[in-house]
Amino acid sequence: MPAQLFRAHTNSRLTAAKKLTLVLIATALLAACGGGSGPVVADNPAVADNPSVVEKPADRAQAAHFLTQATFGPADADIDHLMSVGYSAWIDEQLAKPVTPHRANWEAQDAAVKASDATRSAGQDGIYNSFWKAAVTGEDQLRQRVAFALSQIFVISMQDDTVGNNPRAVADYMDMLADKGLSTYRQLLEGVSRHPMMGVYLSHLRNRKADPRTGRVPDENYAREVMQLFSIGLYQLESDGTVKQSGGQPLETYGQADIAGLAKVFTGFSWTCPSWPDNACFSNGSVDGLSDPDRSFKSMLGYPQYHSTEEKNFLGTTLAAQSYGNPDASLAAALDRLAAHPNVGPFIGKQLIQRLVTSNPSPAYVAAVAATFNDNGSGVRGDMKAVVKRILMHPEARVMSATSGKVREPMLRLSAFLRAFPFSSDSGWWRVGNTDNAGTALGQTPMRSPSVFNFWRPGYVAPGTQASARGLAAPEMQITQETSAAGYVNYMRDNIASGVGAWATVSVSGGNVSRRDVQPDFSAELALAEQPDALVGRLNDKLMYGTMPADLRSEIVGAVSSITIPALNATGTNQAQINTAKRNRVNAAIFLTVVSPEYQVQK
Length: 603
Hints:
Elements: H1 2-10, H2 16-30, H3 45-48, H4 60-70, H5 76-85, H6 87-96, H7 102-116, H8 123-137, H9 141-151, H10 161-164, H11 167-180, H12 185-194, H13 196-201, H14 221-228, E1 245-246, E2 249-250, H15 256-265, E3 269-270, H16 281-284, E4 286-287, E5 290-291, E6 301-302, E7 312-314, E8 317-319, H17 327-340, H18 344-356, H19 363-374, H20 384-393, E9 406-407, H21 410-420, E10 424-425, H22 466-469, H23 482-498, E11 500-508, E12 511-519, H24 523-526, H25 532-543, H26 550-561, H27 575-594, E13 601-602
Antiparallel strand pairs: 1-2, 3-6, 4-5, 7-8, 9-13, 10-12, 11-12
């Protein structure tokens, strides 16, 4: 059945019923959450516990497998370099690279837009453009991939109007995650907690102490989410991530009293201001018309008059009552307590494993990462570089089995496709645009999750699927349904045929043409168009890293072969038809590869 549907789609003869069937098949197969062919790599604890051991990929397929976890998609040059230097050295090189500057990218775009029309701005498009430029062309691939993972844990979203109206500050938040996300967890937590966009999003910017006269109490939103989502989670955990229980019931990590106590800590913080700590700055960040033009991204400052002086009790910690509000001292003590909690290593570590490697890490994998979080080997707790390296160097990250890997989220499907071929941007800005629409695009856009709970929950189990029957989480399946599966198929069909992103008129070979901004170079594939097996073999290497199942390969070869290439006539007048047929073969081969369930799973 899949082969018949693929062939029908290639020939543009899908009926509505067949199209729906394809969607349902794709949805079911996606839930396999792994599978496919490929080697099962044996554990090597000596290497995992001793990063000084030089371990190199055995072949290009293993190198590509690693790079699917550590980058936005394997590229030939990256595979070559990884095979030369080995895993550990490659990670160290990547962690030493400078940060791709999203705010600087946004500001450059904004200046270019204003140069042609002073009333316009780069807006949210500048965020999308900078993300895709970094994902496809950035040298600091590992840093950006980790920052992308962190953006789905420490969530702010431009779907919130105030956040969305401050895209320059959102770009700065992305930079903060890329920078502090590879420092220490404690520094990361403070960077998140003090950033004005988080303050706006979770309403602790301008949060005020209690007022018994009016009945006002501190806003509890951030206090709740910083525990539930950003640090310790809902339930007490063993070091391997399993939930502690008492009497058959999970033990909670905090209660309402802890939320209320911690909410007092997050009072008195507001915009940076030239006249700080003048209390008039607290409300709007200005006094007598003076304000800091960068207040939307400079760290929030503490205003003593608005900070709670009451005793603060949370998580077994008591901060004594203050005679005068000291928000910085309260914040430091609270963040120290959160960062020291034994849950943080397994809670954050497991989510990073899920975002980078596999949806269902073993307890031993989680425990190993949590141990590195607790002590990097030099007595430092929360060393995020060491945590990331441990995640990628652990033997389980090399395993390819029926339960390893994860569903490849839509943005990573697109980024892997763009990096596999020499795509370029006519504008230089990588104008991919908003991809929110599940019916016509990806159903996912950077920095635009529907809520603070991200696009999906880390423990989501898709009901009625093979994954569910085996007790496996498949988080990305939470946004996978009939509409999104069909939308992805149609979106990729258009991307392959016409390029990606916004349309513009550009000069090509001395003439003006209208085309999409992000364009591929399929010249190497076109050279193989008359050799379907060789063409599909190349796509197996470029997009599936040597793991394409034999039956899928046979089906794609058959579909490509069914597209006839006419013979060149005596006058050569049908060369255009020949070129079109070759391009159709290439388009069909790539299309059937990237919409296959096997491609949509990161093994």
